[in-house]
Amino acid sequence: MAGLLFSGQDRQTGPRGIVDPVGSGLAGRTESRPLAPEAAPIRIVLGPEGRDVRLSGELTEGAAERLAGLLDAHRTVERIHLTSEGGLVDEGAAIGALIAERGLVTYVPDYCVSACTLAFVRGRERLVLADARLGFHAPYETDSVGSEFAVDSAPERAAYLAAGVRADFVDAALTIRPDDLMIPDADTLVKAGVATGIVDAYRFPDSTLDDGDTPERVRRVILHDVPLLDAVEAGAPGTVAPIAAWYLDGYHRGRPEGEAVDGVRRMAAHAVARSLADADPAALDELGRMILRAMQRPNPDRARVCAAAREGAGAVLTRPRLDRTQLAAGRAILARALGLRPAEDSSKRAAVEALAATGSAPPVPGRGCSALRKAFAAALARPVPESAQALRPLLFPAPPARLRPPLEASALPP
Fold first, then answer.
1. Which H/E stretch holds residue 303?
2. What InterPro entries does the record tag this protein with (predicted)?
3. 8 A C-beta contact, residue 35 and residue 8
4. Chain segment 229-248, per-residue pLDDT in tens
5. What angle do CA 195, 104, 110 make, to 5 degrees?
6. Which segments of the chain have a pLDDT < 70?
């Protein structure tokens, strides 16, 4: 059975590998499983302080043996982070047996698909991030021409049931065709007994770079999370490097993912705000209108936009889930602002950073969302350039002390 597969899917190139949209309900959503010519190679490494192991990539032959050697050499390991698109059933089962034998906690920070789930369910505790994805389908084999066909799933069914997974969930999972995936949401995983708990991103050390911690990989992660930094980098080369260095150092030290993301966004927001500080009045007026439209939009994102707007334009433009229109508008405004100053004057820059640090801009009274919208609307009712002057305290307020990232001196933007 060494050739029996439970998935051959390739991890995507984003910072958090995308498998399929998260489904809902006990059976979850079924999605076609995209196949790539090559799957990510297996990577098994010891995490910070020797308390966890990071396993990522395809479960190829010998993966369990490698994991056993690492666990034998490091008896302090308590937890294993699993980020895998699946692979050989025998390897998934063998890794699961090791996990059960050593009493390890299993944790999925991103995705664990197919044969990987056989390892996950053997954990003493089985924990997932709220947006983590576990994918299930029937096991399969491939014939001489590469076609997939389902095979007897009785051994997998027995393994899931022995781990305490509900029978109706197992039956639903193993009826999924080999070229599809069932991806339930985290609550369903807990109700079905697949997972024992849901944790937030501040609980465990960051696993985002488990499949590679090279400088190029770190840079891709940051630009994926904060795409507008590429526009800043185009006008101010070297902006991303110190942020990436800080992020990579934190990964090696075991900084939780939530803290790492918060810090990157704060540093990125500072860089964006600094790039906008010398924008012409028309660009600032356009930026103010974009932010006001986002705060007025009647959808669940409005509260997050208002919260970001209280911190300033940099926080608005670096918040997660910007839509395409907002990204395009942000890039255009940043390009215009940076085009005004191809060679930044150091004394001017020092003055801008001093303003950001000391908060000399006056606060807006009653800084709730309604008051903030009214303040933006009042500023924008004035003609340009008066509107830009009125907008500056709103676009570049001083960040509260509690929001400043714990920047090491070596990681400060140049």
1. helix 302-311
2. ClpP/crotonase-like_dom_sf
3. yes
4. 999 999 889 999 999 999 99
5. 50
6. 1-40, 143-150, 340-367, 398-414
The single-letter code of the amino acid at 94 is A
Q: What is the DSSP letter of 399?
A: P
**Which residue from 288, 276, 242, 292 is spatially nearest to 355, judged by alpha carbons?**
276
Q: Are 263 and 201 in contact (CB under 8 A)?
A: no
Q: What letters, b where the CB count within 10 A reaches 16 and e where it falls short, cover 250-279?
A: bbeeebbbebbbbbbbbbbbbbbbbbbbbb
Fold of 29-199: 2-enoyl-CoA Hydratase; Chain A, domain 1 (3.90.226)
Distance CA 315, CA 404 (A): 12
**Tokens for 38?**
């090559």
Kindly provide the b/e burial profile for residues 307-343, where b requires at least 16 CB atoms within 10 angstroms of the residue's own CB: ebbbbbbbbbbbbeebeeebeebbbebbebbbeebee
pTM of the model: 0.78
Give residue limits of the domains in the chain: 29-199, 215-411
Angle 260-413-270 (CA atoms, 0-180°, nearest 5)? 70
Q: Are 237 and 339 in contact (CB under 8 A)?
A: no
CB atoms within 10 A of CB 26: 15
Angle between the N-to-C axes of helices 281-296 and 386-395, in degrees from 0 to 180, rounded to the nearest 10 = 60
Q: For residue 237, is the peptide bond before it cis, meaning its omega torsion is within 30 degrees of 0?
A: no
Q: Read out DSSP for 165-200?
A: --HHHHHHHTTS-TTEEEE--HHHHHHTTS-SEEE-
Q: What DSSP state is assigned to residue 256?
A: B
The CA angle 377-380-381, to the nearest 5 degrees, is 85
The residue type of 25 is G
Q: 164-175, pLDDT tens digit by residue?
A: 999 999 999 999
Cβ atoms within 10 Å of 402's Cβ, excluding its own: 5
Q: Which two tokens stand for residue 266?
A: 């704060």
- DSSP E strand stretches across 204-256: none
314, 272 Cβ separation under 8 angstroms: yes
